[in-house]
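Running this now, will post back.
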Amino acid sequence: MASDHAGFELKETVKSWLEAEGHEVEDVGTFSEESTDYPPFAAQAARLVAGGRAEMGVLVCGSGNGVAITANKVEGIRAVNAHDVSEAEMARRHNDANVVTLAGRRLDPEVAERIVETFLSTQFEGGRHERRVEEITEIEQG
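Update: finished.
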């Protein structure tokens, strides 16, 4: 997990919920609401996922956009800014997304928890979608 100052409060709430659900959470920051830039935190968390040290990533900033853009710059990451459960589910089923980003200034904590729960519990369907994910990987690798 990672956030900037705008996502800090929601990150802390979701982190506590994840831990209560039995998930092991590695929080790479930020650790306060003091103004900070999101790219270093989002990139560090994305690298943990890309490197296999974490199965999935959860990133939070004010809109969810900045951390999604940053995470998607890391090879092997398919990050989605999910605004609802349906987006989280489809990103996993069809895109094999491995990072979900959340809008700290827009999402109710209970909605954010349901989004993350759905993201973590939904499996990739493969099939025709696998071909498309492979095409994305080819583009990423140049």
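The radius of gyration is 14 Å. More later if anyone needs it.
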